[in-house]
Design a protein that fits this description.
It is a single chain. With about 210 residues, the protein is of the alpha/beta class. The chain has one domain: P-loop containing nucleotide triphosphate hydrolases (Rossmann fold), CATH 3.40.50.300. About 50% of the residues lie in helices and about 10% in strands. The chain contains 8 helices and 5 strands; from the N terminus they run βαβαβααβααβαα. It has a 5-stranded parallel β-sheet, sandwiched between helices.
Length: about 210
């Protein structure tokens, strides 16, 4: 069972993954940046996105070494990449949708993308995200990623994905977010299940959302 944790920056995805990992026998696949060989600062949007696509292929290779693990916690899926591409167009007028869609569909069809069994979308109030971003300025996060319009587009993209594919949303504003996450893993989902999503359905819906 692979569970993907998607959502905006500073919503607490990685923290939630780490806390759940402490109470559930599982393995973690880090987010894409962990697999970068070098920096992406100063590159144009498409060059940066190609690095994310390359990182996804590396993550897929990494997954093959975890075949004996029953529960895998995935820090961001291909949905986060697609939501970013949609938000770039909506908030900055940077349109790499067609190139990204061709690339991601090709990789999905070739089996180079991790397709989770379940999606878990992490949400958080905008003001809390902004406060966390300013407090953690040492991370040098590009302000684009916590601009309100960008955040709203990503959140809307995730909501649309959730409407089409089975998923759960957790609001980390709530004090009981970790308990809710545990409940989703332990009681709501059968971790022995291996059911997944149809590749053609995924590709069609990505095309619809990025049209």
């Amino acid at each position: 069972m692979i569970i993907a944790f998607d959502g905006n920056v500073f919503t607490g995805k990685t923290s939630l993954i780490e806390k759940l990992h402490q109470v559930e026998q599982s393995s973690i696949i880090p987010e894409h940046g962990h697999f970068f060989a070098d920096t992406v600062i100063g590159e144009d949007a498409w060059d940066t996105q190609k690095k994310y696509l390359g990182a996804e292929r590396l993550r897929h290779e990494y997954l093959s070494g975890l075949s004996s693990q029953k529960l895998i916690l995935l820090d961001r899926s291909f949905v986060s990449m697609a939501a970013h591409v949609a938000a770039l167009k909506a908030s900055k007028g940077i349109d790499i949708r067609a190139r990204f869609l061709r690339a991601i569909v090709g990789d999905i069809q070739a089996g180079r993308v991790i397709i989770p069994n379940k999606f878990l979308f992490i949400r958080c109030d905008y003001e809390i995200i902004k406060t966390r971003a300013l407090k953690d300025a040492i991370k040098n996060t590009d302000p684009l990623y916590y601009g309100q319009e960008y955040l709203e587009v990503v959140d809307n993209f995730n909501r649309q994905w959730q409407e089409h594919f089975p998923a759960l949303a957790i609001d980390t504003d709530a004090d009981q977010s970790v308990q809710l996450g545990q409940l989703a893993l332990i009681k709501g989902w059968d971790i022995s299940s291996s059911s997944g999503y149809a590749v053609n359905d995924i590709c069609r819906y990505l095309g619809k959302l990025l049209a």
